[in-house]
């Protein structure tokens, strides 16, 4: 067995220099990092340069993350936890190393509270299946907001249908913030769970997580935070938040698709039954019954997405390299620029004017259907999203069937927003005259 620390360090050395190269001194310049994202330089639609403004759907990946995946498959592909050979040891070390990186990223007290999932959707379904279905009953209430993504609504509708628990909702005010007075009124001893989106993927609103959690605690309710849109752009601290669970997806924070995390308080996860049964999540199995593995394996049945977890660890490294405060500040600044420029176009209405907001900017253009607009700007190489954004109840609240959404991230430039504005102006002319 080779226990020489130097050879181990060499085997686990980061594969890409790009990920560790220091950033230039001085104020953050997105141009300095764009070279890390080869896809931002591709040409689309007859040689147009790409303006990628669909980051709330998924973010682009720096080369270091693609290299981390490649390196895993080329240098140490093996199943984790199971075998004693060298490759399995290397794979397990990297996989568990990624878990530790995520623990530190969330400032979680214990690595046993970090469960790898397929993404936010699976994390929420895990809590719905393994906790809510077994603990809620008729008369109990689940409190959500009117601005939930379907991922944090449909699982609770299924739980309510099967347990008799009732769904209640915190309304959304016209400026895109939550009606906190109504929140206080809807809380009661019957509230067993508060599940809310930290940042709305439609309105960009940053919800007052601490206040919401304190309110829920005052009536003894458990709390789940959907952090799909907040993990990519700000420091999260699950101990300061004091939530029971928090879910996010790797692909929205520069990591691979198909990997995400459910954080849970250890004592809460300990008290829960497993979600999926199978290999890896057991301790002792007889023909009749089984006992469960310790956390977090109890919730990780089957072969995990090893490369995905390693890629997510590399994404966490990359985010730390840029600095989460820098990312948040730059994204806020660019979102403000986007709102200012879009507001200057006659007939444009912006949805969501919360004072604290992220980079997702939803809007409508009078006389142009969102789908037509998305297709039109795509011809200019600009990627935006159009549709109900997986938030149909919120669309109803806003009184529209669909919206257009430009969502910016740390590598976007003001000039890309200028291109969007120019293209929208052309689209308005085009659809007015039909030429
Ligand atoms: N919640 C929010 C707020 C989201 O924006 C998304 C993704 N659009 C999800 C949940 C679901 O994430 P995933 O599809 O990665 O599971």
Write up what this structure looks like.
The structure is a single chain. With 435 residues, the protein is α/β, with parallel strands linked by helices. It contains 15 helices and 17 strands. The strands form five sheets. The protein has a seven-stranded mixed beta sheet, with helices on both faces. Helix 3 runs antiparallel to helix 11 (306-322) and helix 4 (86-106) packs across helix 11 (306-322). The radius of gyration is 23 Å and the shape is globular. The structure holds 4'-deoxy-4'-aminopyridoxal-5'-phosphate.
Please, what is the average pLDDT?
Answer: 94
- Global shape: globular
What compounds are bound to the protein? Answer: 4'-deoxy-4'-aminopyridoxal-5'-phosphate
Largest sheet: 7 strands, mixed
**What oligomeric state is this?**
single chain
Class per helix and strand makeup: alpha/beta
Number of helices: 15
What is the spatial order of strands in the main beta sheet?
Answer: 4-10-9-8-7-5-6
Q: Termini separation (Å)?
A: 73 Å
Low-confidence stretches: 1-15
Strand content: 15-25%
Helix percent reads: 25-40%
Total strand segments: 17
Rg over CA atoms, rounded to whole Å, is: 23 Å
Descriptive terms for the model:
single chain; 435 residues; binds 4'-deoxy-4'-aminopyridoxal-5'-phosphate; alpha/beta; 4-stranded antiparallel sheet; disordered N terminus; 7-stranded mixed sheet
